[in-house]
Amino acid sequence: MHLTYLDSNSWLVEIGGQRILIDPWLVGDLIFGNLNWFFKGSRRQEHPIPDNIDLILLSQGLSDHTHPPTLKQLDRNIPVVASPNAASVVRQLSYVQVTALAHGQTFTLNNSVKIKATPGSSIGPTLVENGYLLKELESGKTIYYEPHGFHSPQLKLDAPIDVVITPIVDLELPFIGPIIKGTNSTLDLVKELQPQIILPTASGGDVVFEGLLMQFLQTVGSVEEFRSLLEKNNLSTQVIEALSGERFEVKLERRELTI
Asked: Which of 89, 97, 142, 251 is such that its CA lies 20 to 30 A from the CA of 33?
């Protein structure tokens, strides 16, 4: 299993011989609704479009997960698995093979990787987007991805999970509260899922954010504080801070089955 962090929420996951591109923002700026004065994300350096992608996996329909300028540069023949909201975006971009997964539904990629949609982030009062559980069928190795720290209680039924990709700090707005939940949400998740490795996502990488919104966003917590929390709770999960654009191998210990 190999992973490459492509900044913000974007990952290239290599599992079961498949190359899966998750929530790609690789080129251009990140702007919501053409309101660059309100929020704008910029790259110091654009990432090249990865070769030989077997699947694009999209968790949300918002632009920081389903980024139109990036998707316009990718091959429209690459299969896409997405939340229903994200699926409607890529269909408008003329992608040929789009599978929308509702919560609990699964998709098997080339008889190698099983992908299960889980309840994820709440967007507004009624919309709940997707997280994903990826399982390598040959080895049973698993990865769980949810980019905003909103985790379904039902995940404990799939424990243990080997690798978790999710935030470990909170991003809060005054009078609203966390829009990204990391510290306590992820600590509870680690207790339930017993992952060997956790990789922070959402706020890192080689990017710059600016605009009015950034004056109000507050970051609560840090990587070191989260490591201390794990130690205080006698949890052996390893926190790995992935470097932007650097491919690395995830080395997992063999778990002993208990009856």
From this structure: 97
CATH topology of domain 2-242: Metallo-beta-lactamase; Chain A (3.60.15)
Task: Check residue 56 and report its DSSP letter.
Answer: E
- pLDDT, one tens digit per residue, over 114-150 is 999 999 998 877 899 999 999 999 999 999 999 999 9
pLDDT tens string 62-76: 888 999 999 999 999
Residue keyed to tokens 């080689």: 206
Model confidence at 175, pLDDT cuts 50, 70, 90, reads low
Q: Which residues pair with 144 in a beta bridge?
A: 133, 164
Name every residue whose Cβ is closer than 8 Å to that of residue 47 and which is 6 or more positions away in sequence. 6, 7, 10, 26, 27, 245
One-letter amino acid for residue 142 of the chain? T
Letter string b/e over residues 158-176, b meaning 16 or more CB atoms within 10 A of that residue's CB: beebbbbbbbbbbbbeeee
Cβ pair 210, 161 in contact under 8 A = no
Whole-Å CA distances, 142 to 15, 108, 132, 135, 195: 9, 14, 10, 4, 9
Look at the pTM and tell me if it is higher than 0.85: yes
CA 129 vs. chain centroid, Å, equals: 12
